[in-house]
Amino acid sequence: MLLTRSDIEVVLGEALAGGGELAEIFVERRRTNSISLEGQRIEKVNSGLDQGAGIRLLAGESSIYVFTNDLSLTGLKTAAQRAAAALAEGKGTRRIIRINDAGEAPPAPVRRGEIRDKAAIVAAAEKEARAAGDAICQVMVSYGDSEQEILVANTSGRVATDRRYRTTLAINVVAGDGDNVQTGYESLGGTQGLELLALDKVRELGDRAARRALLLLRAKPAPAGRMAVVMAGEAGGTMIHEACGHGLEADIVGKEMSVYAGKIGRRVASELVTVIDDPTLPGKYGSYGCDDEGTPAQKTVLIENGILKSYMYDLEWARREGKSSTGNGRRQSFHFPPIPRMSNTYLAPGNTHPEEIIARTERGLLVKRMGGGQVNPTTGDFVFEVAEGYLIERGKITVPVRGATLSGNGPQALMAVDLVGNDLGFAIGTCGKDGQGVPVSDAQPTIRIPELVVGGLL
Amino acid sequence: MNPQELVQTGIQKAEEAGADQAEVFFLERSTLTIEVRGGRLETLRQSKERGIGLRVLKDGSLGYAFTSDLSQSALADAAREAVANAGYVAPDHARTLPVPSAIDPSRAQYDPMISDVPISAKIDLALAIERAAFAEDKRVTKSERAAYEEVEYCVAIGNSHGLEVSYRGNFCGGYAWVVAEADGDAETGSGLSYTTRFSELDPAAIGREAGREAVQLLGAKPISTQKLALILPPQAATQLLGILAPALTAEAVQKRRSLFAGRLGEQVASDVVTIVDDGTLPGGINTSPVDGEGVPTQRTALVSAGVLRAFLHNSYTAAKEGTRSTGNGMRSSFKGAPEVGPTNMFFVPGKIRPEELLAGVDKGLYVYDLLGTHTANPISGDFSLGATGILIEKGRFTRPVRGVVIAGNVVSLLKEIQAVGSDLRFYLGFGSPTLLVQPLTVSGE
User: Fold this and answer.
1) Which residue of chain A is at minimal alpha-carbon distance from B62?
2) Among A130, A163, B148, B373, which residue carries the largest CB count within 10 Å?
């Protein structure tokens, strides 16, 4: 039990004593393990426990946030009193707060394992990557797991607990051939334990990262110009997340920084495009039972057959706009107040076989892995690096190319999508916004955009 | 328990758990951030956090664990975990814990005024920043964010060699992002300043700077591609240091990730360039008696008159090369072992006033902001950065510019620095005077 019901009632009462409409407490305990391997040796193993509580006070359009890792009743009361004093309206009345029992979050049904098992996984990934070829000169592997237990309660009577167990494995491979140095990266993550990292899957991941680095050594510089771009399902949904998803977060919309502001019910994408955010997907990296404000996780259809249906809300933006929270109020940890965030965001599969999409493309670029990118949320303009790309010529995949970048405009690209595959590929990441990183996944089927600007090597 | 007692308890528990040697790092950190918008308090964030990190050596291997639960049982758990973790790490003879050395406690910088001034006065200070921006010019129409911020910390470090040190420090600052509008154009300007003395914080100056920059950029347009000298004021030059800093650490050199690897003693910059890291700098935001593993801080000349002289070291990178730590074992939290990083790193100023530098430029660009510095390649030093600024013709500002790209290599740029101004200014841990860079190609339309 992170905190008893009576303690919560006392602390929330203190927080509201100086005025304000809503007080909330978020308590978190997080255990983490990480292992990193570099230069063929395990260099670091780190285990930790971090715990603390954040108290939030909403008053009009002002918000106060105080956090502490002193979880004693005295420590929490002090934090609550600081929040109340910061508001300093002096017109608060002491209210009696009553909430229900939160109960305890049930244990996560995952395989935990020992550091020994995890170290063996890291070693297996490196061994497989190194075996892929003589040109492999460096392999870096990092493993991480975290078990996060949360309790959240607020003065509108909401109280909830959740337990989230996450595991990740990332592999970075450098291959060199004289002056030509290329890298390959692969990662895997989920709200799962060691069952996520079965040895055959780990080996395949190491091999794939290594083969990408090797492939890029013999890739030709990418051509530049306007052309059709086929994004394979296995590329994941980076573009959907970055160039569309952020513009559908209620705070970005509310601050008039989104191209999608004021467009509910209007056509914003090709009718082949349906975009969904769903934290209830079992085992996915961005999944949770309730969000970090205690709202139960739910599936939200954002765009349906090209028509804009909904934004993603947390409690504060839902209150401002007269809506209900969609369960997208998330925070990195107790150090931060919640804001509207994505969870698992995907473009829903269509009917076309991926091979047919390539066969129907006369000339273009096939993107099998996306790299980093930058998006202007206000305009939707994006630039992405292509980590693994191939030329499509006369409906066939021909040569690998490197150094390609994609530039365009997110909303325009979604409007132009003309083929949507019947596959679905996921990628994981840590999404950064307002200085907070949260685990997310994104996915898409194979899709074709008839024309994007492809930048070649400088 | 007070911090020193916690540290000693941690060492004892680690040794009981089987550690050959142990180090305990205690950090308590409090922060306050006040953001205002449109004359009203928008958000206020306040925090107090404490925790310890345990680093243990067992049979030549290093293990780590941390906890923010400071109960006896949690300390014992962390000690056992750290020792167990060491069992899976490859042994490395360079992993050592530093022995105690004489320290100068006066290097701790603590200004009681920062914590004594009441919150209401700090809210007023943030509001004053915003007001000054609006007062600067009628065309300043919106404030995106104006804020007051402060950080206070208490550090205690101890290890099995008898090293025992603790100190506290604090600093404060403010910033503003404002928008100016005219003739359908909207431009953003920013002002920012951090200091270790509350009385030195000048809210009006921060606001004015943000307002002035936004207004001066109004009507900014791209220019044709041309060769232009660059004037990099401190705010832009420090962004350049941010790209350089990782490459000047011994860690990057040893992992073959530094563009300066193997170039000690070589001319890597023009002879007007001297780059120093100084953890003892009076008034520096990152000044402290010791680094994150208890080694005294020092002043290290990295580049002297253009010649590469040294890299930054912590105990580990130093032991690998048989040299001494430069006191750059940096730790931003108790959750991890010390890495190598800069303290207060800066271009040493020259004697020329910035106005004189400007007056001598026939055709140039005064750079307000560089965009995309995180995309610069830290290994090759190649960069391609967007820039906004003001065109200089015959020593005078003529018109605002945006949407241009400056591409090149950090090392070649260092060699093109022609003159260094006298106006050293710090942006948190990085400092620079105004720099004059010889003409290079600025890509526009």
Assistant:
1) A44
2) B148
